[in-house]
Amino acid sequence: MSPSSPVVRAPLRSRNHTVDHAAAVTWALAHDVCGVGGRLRQDAGELEHAVELVTRAYDERVGERLRRFAELPEGTFVWTRTPDGPLRLGRLVGPWYQDRSSEAHTHDLTHLRPCTWLPEPVEDDEAPAAVRQTFDRGGRNLQRIRPTSALGDVESETAALWDDLAGDA
Question: What pLDDT sits at residue 152?
Answer without folding.
Answer: 84
